[in-house]
Design brief:
- With 553 residues, the protein is of the alpha/beta class.
- Among the domains are: 90 residues, Gyrase A, domain 2; 123 residues, Isoleucyl-tRNA Synthetase, Domain 1 (Orthogonal Bundle).
- Helix content is 50%, strand content 13%.
- It has 18 helices and 15 strands.
- A five-stranded parallel β-sheet has the order 7-6-5-11-12, with helices on both faces.
- It is globular, with a radius of gyration of 29 Å.
- The mean pLDDT is 92.
- It binds one RNA strand of 75 nucleotides through α2, α6, β9, β10 and α12.
Length: 553
Amino acid sequence: MTPEQLSDVVRSAVAAAVERGDLAVAVPEDVVIERPKNPEHGDYATNVALRLAKGAGRPPREVAELLATELRAVDGVAAVDVAGPGFLNITLAKDALGQIAVRVVTAGEAYGRTDVLAGQRLNLEFVSANPTGPVHIGGTRWAAVGDALGRLLSASGAEVTREYYLNDAGAQIDRFARSLQAAALDRPVPEDGYAGQYIGEIAAQVLTAEPELLARPEEEQVTVFRERGVELMVAEIRSSLAALGVEYDVFFSELSLYASGAVEKAVARLREQGHVYEADGAVWLRTTTFGDDKDRVLVKADGETTYFASDCAYYLDKRGRGFDKVVIMLGADHSGYVGRYKALVAATGDDPDTNLEILIGQLVNLLRDGEPVRMSKRAGTVVLLEDLVEAVGVDAARYALARASVDQQIDLDIELWTRRTNDNPVFYVQYAHARISSVLRGAGDLGLSLGEAGDVDPAVLEHPREGDLLRALGEFPRVIASAAELRAPHRVARYLEELAGTYHRFYDSCRVLPRGDEEATPVTTGRLWLCAATATVLRNGLAVLGVSAPERM
RNA sequence: GCCCCCGUAGCUCAGGGGAUAGAGCACUGCCCUCCGGAGGCAGGGGCGCAGGUUCGAAUCCUGCCGGGGGCACCA
């Protein structure tokens, strides 16, 4: 019996008590089932009696006793105790707990998938670094976390489109183009321009494609450097993201919003809705109406539109494509955007609390020899996605970036990472998988196999460490679901570390394979199923994080 | 000045109102005639401060103190 099933069982018990008139309460939507830390508190516990007591007008323990009687009659429930202020501690029958292993193996890759977010159409935008340079370490964090979040949301039944917004218009792109031109002409880096090795490399590539370029008038040169340069830069960004295993459904061009007239239409629409005014020669959106600190400029006095104007058009485009909710991941250096973006959504007539979700993640600090490394894209002193991957590999890079809460700043000591030490928990988790694979290989060598689901007796899994492992495996779907709902991929990583530890403890005290000339027993078969189930969950969990589950290391 | 994030073990961090607050690393002492010792067992030590809400607060609210980030007709 899984925790979800138990939750239904308890809920039914409440409903039955209400039906009989023993309890006068509204039956709760869902009942929280916890895994007690203390083994004396049974396999599972619920605080449902504590929650219902007030509404029922009766002491919690009395409600608990009532439900305990109800639950003891349920098939698969071995014991129910009322404890403390009114907790119900539930012990499952051995076979009901052991059945989890069979369930996991049978479900395979599907184990952990739920429909808790079914029916939601989400647009998930992440990274969206300007195509004026390679993806640096900060963007890499959002790549790892955003990709994992996308997988989590999909696994929970949401329909997700992963999107990268290319800011391929505007002043920064002009600076980028002029920087390329300067490099090609061997001139110094322009004021506010970009430096770094990649500028020279891209300039050279543009010249290879357009050998006669430098013979043309300077303004034409800039145009070509802009178009070709952005194209090359975008290709490089896409390829480094792909190298990290990060996939997108859509790369969306800001320029296309201008080409299609969407920006003008967006401004016109907001004007019709009465939120646009003119002052000091500029066109403003009255975002203060919707709680922003100050109003925002859409069109500058010089006639140029701002990024905010294209943001408006972009948001409307996403909504026009049918997404219920627009989810955007941004770094802490963009936290000031939240207010204006919420206001913009409200101005279009949408509800900023349901149609928009901005996830702010804290920045990655780089340390070298304990000293902070100052990063500047323009000066070219950055650590890139490729650098990180080269230093630690894709698995460790993704895992390390995704295992921390996005609310937490990460201090990344480069020396530590390049040294590739054992304190990276990804090895701990992967090792557990490799160890299980080795056991299963050994079983094959002995001519043993899992057989069919009917060949295993779940009741033989009665060792305390087996129970620990079964309960841990039973948690997985809830871990995935809550991580998706909380937008917290790191919870999956933490869970996997806990699961790996639980497996190692099981392995240490429960011999799986027969030794010497011993015969295989029903316990052997049961434990093989338990091993296979653990491997399945480790694989499924690592897959969510985009990390491989090696069979040998 | 205003807004956002953080403050939990020596260090790096988990803990979406529940029972005795956890893990890794570090330190100390143990455990393979046996499936991968990249493992396991045991030990010491912690919720920044002050109020509030609650039967119950690391968790929610307020204030303060520290650390980081943001407050452009920049992107």
